[in-house]
Design brief:
This protein is an all-alpha fold. It has one domain. The chain is built from 6 helices and no strands. Helix 1 packs antiparallel against helix 3. The longest helix has about 30 residues.
């Protein structure tokens, strides 16, 4: 008996992990050890989970090859990314308000996200098979930054 996971299954798994981690950002107390640990851990999820979901969708022969079609497969990952970015943005901006050194680290994290998602997309774009993943990674970066700022400025 073989078990296979679909690209939608990967998107759901990645979306749940991203969303849960983002929701955790709202539950952590400011100026606590948990906040420091959260900030240290928060930079890695979007640059690993979303590209994994995007690649799974791009490599799935049954998934549509259009940007809209790929997004329809990836909507759970996008939903999780929004929750993640709002929660992490809230936590980062709140930490920056009470510790000025966090601001520099925030810009470093944003630079790493840009490098991985944008440059990673550029590396995937030349190949027909992975080109849909590249477009989704570029769109995800825009969603990440917009929701990160919304989380930091609105909450």
């Amino acid at each position: 008996m073989s078990v296979s996971i679909t690209s939608r299954g990967v998107a759901i798994c990645c979306g749940v992990l991203l969303g849960a981690f983002g929701a955790l950002g709202f539950l952590i107390s400011p100026n606590s050890a948990a906040e420091v640990n959260y900030l240290l851990a928060s930079w890695l999820l979007p640059i690993t989970l979303f590209p994994a979901a995007a690649l799974a969708a791009a490599l799935d022969a049954g998934a549509p090859r259009t940007v809209r079609g790929q997004a329809s497969v990836l909507w759970p990952a996008y939903s999780g990314l929004v929750i993640y970015a709002v929660g992490a943005g809230h936590r980062w901006f709140e930490a920056e308000a009470h510790d000025s050194g966090v601001g520099l680290l925030l810009y470093l994290v944003m630079t790493v996200h840009a490098a991985v998602l944008l440059a990673g997309g550029m590396a995937l774009a030349p190949f027909v098979t992975t080109r849909p993943a590249a477009f989704q990674m570029w769109l995800a970066y825009v969603v990440l930054i917009a929701c990160w700022l919304a989380g930091g400025l609105l909450f």
